[in-house]
Specification:
- The chain has about 350 residues and is an alpha/beta fold.
- The protein folds into 2 domains: about 140 residues, NAD(P)-binding Rossmann-like Domain (Rossmann fold, 3-Layer(aba) Sandwich), CATH 3.40.50.720; about 200 residues, 2-Layer Sandwich (Dihydrodipicolinate Reductase, domain 2), CATH 3.30.360.10.
- It is about 30% helix and about 20% strand.
- The chain contains 9 helices and 13 strands.
- Helix 1 crosses helix 9, helix 3 runs parallel beside helix 6 and helix 3 packs across helix 9.
- The radius of gyration is 21 Å and the shape is globular.
């Protein structure tokens, strides 16, 4: 007997994450029947390659989900909020990459290496995928939690500009073209003045990101916190099933195109020996342990970009707390941080379809 190959829709196929998704669908084992590519009416009509075939891009409209078993949403929050329930009502299991449903009590928030069972309980017919920063750290942290019992997280993220989509990448490249070959960066405010303020009219960042770091990601969430920082807190709690977990995050944009980095202080219920932490991480699904700092071996964005795993290095016991470890983690925010996790959730759902 063979398992029925469910039909798949990719909503947002023409976007940056959509492009990565089409690569993943062509690289992974083919568990799908028909693959339907969907985009906004203005982006529809062309053809994109998936699984070695040219496929026409259809317009996002009411009847486009007829006959679709699983629908992947790789679109902004407002588009998912409007069209995700439409796809679910048409009978599709929706796997959503946006923030629209992540904290909805009736929508599971899933990372297949950590809580795959949660994908089966979906009262609204929707499964959510966490944000890219949470995904950069949660696979490694989840593996250590299963062994030692997590009690507290203190993290600082160093986020790639592609978290702001093509607009973010374009802003960085434009800013770099202005500052390259100059003496800028040696006087207060000289980069800001050269770029005409916060980095140009089209920049999505609160300050220049070229030759700089910007300690703000997301929107104002009150009391000095950003929405991105509060999202990491809420998402880690939900994924790990630890509603009282202590989490503190500081989110920073850095002049990197793709791949987030996260400095992690993790405190556990039990004492953590570094050798045992190494064993856990080295055998954890989706994790690569790369940790010989004296030999210059530790993860960096330029080495990790374009790869699927979570890369972990600089693992060391906290000097003042035997129950805590420090780590440096890198993960490609467009792959595991977005398209890959969505694809993995969808493949988990595909295994539910009956054999024929």
């Amino acid at each position: 007997m063979t398992r029925r190959r469910p039909s798949l829709a990719v909503v947002g196929a023409t976007g940056a994450i959509g492009g990565v998704m089409l690569q993943i669908l062509s690289q992974h084992a083919d568990v799908w029947g028909e693959v339907r590519l969907i985009a906004s009416p203005g982006a529809a009509g062309g053809k994109l390659a998936v699984r070695g075939e040219e496929t026409e891009v259809l317009a996002l409209e009411q009847d486009v989900f007829d006959g679709v078993d699983v629908a992947l949403f790789l679109v902004p929050d407002e588009v998912s909020a409007q069209w995700g329930p439409v796809a679910a009502a048409a009978g599709a299991v929706v796997v959503d990459d946006s923030a629209a449903f992540r904290l909805d009590e009736d929508v599971p928030l899933v990372v297949p290496e950590v809580n795959p069972h949660a994908a089966r309980l979906r009262p609204r017919g929707i499964v959510a995928s966490p944000g890219s920063t949470t995904l950069s750290l949660i696979v490694a942290v989840g593996a250590l939690h299963a062994e030692f019992g997590l009690r507290e997280l203190i993290v600082s993220s160093y986020q790639a500009v592609s978290a702001e989509g093509r607009e973010g990448v374009a802003a960085l490249r434009e800013q770099l073209s202005v500052v390259a070959g100059t003496e800028l960066g040696t006087c207060p405010g000289d980069i800001r003045r050269a770029l005409g303020g916060d980095g140009g009219d089209r920049s999505p960042f609160a300050a220049p990101v070229a030759l700089n770091v910007v300690p703000w990601a997301g929107q104002d969430a009150g009391d000095g916190w950003s929405s991105e920082e509060l999202a990491i807190r809420a998402e880690c709690r939900k994924i790990l099933g630890l509603p009282a977990l202590k989490v503190t995050a500081t989110c920073v944009y850095v002049p990197v195109v793709a791949t987030h980095s996260v400095s992690v202080h993790a405190r556990f219920e039990n004492e953590v020996a570094v050798d045992r932490a190494h064993e856990v991480l080295a055998t954890a699904p989706g994790v690569v342990l790369f940790d010989r700092p004296a030999a210059g071996e530790f993860p960096t964005p330029s080495d990790v970009v374009g790869t699927d795993p979570t890369w972990v290095g600089r693992v060391r016991q906290s000097m003042d707390d035997p129950n805590a470890v420090e780590m440096f983690i890198c993960g490609d925010n467009l792959r595991k941080g977005a398209a890959l996790n969505v694809a993995q959730i969808a493949e988990t759902v595909a295994r539910e379809f009956p054999e024929i």
